[in-house]
Amino acid sequence: MTFKGFLILVAAMSAVTLLLYLIDKSRAKRGAWRIPEKVLLGCGILGGAAGGLLGMRLFRHKTKKAYFWTVNGIALIVHVVIAVWLSTKGI
After folding, report:
1. What's the DSSP call for residue 60?
2. 7, CA 20 to 30 Å: which among 1, 13, 23, 32?
């Protein structure tokens, strides 16, 4: 994967993850069917960590669950490391 391709992937997954947090928060308020936590966390791990963390802050959703902060935080660090590595490889 190229650096540019990775950035596009991360941006797209972050947008999707942010939208999922918004939908889940809305459903939580209405008492409707919820998006499973493994889906929210999985999207964060697969490139959407920035969107997940932003969604947590903007919508005040899942903020009391330490493992959401931990998983998204570690995933974000991994995404940054991968981006830096790809940028230095000139790929």
Report:
1. T
2. 23
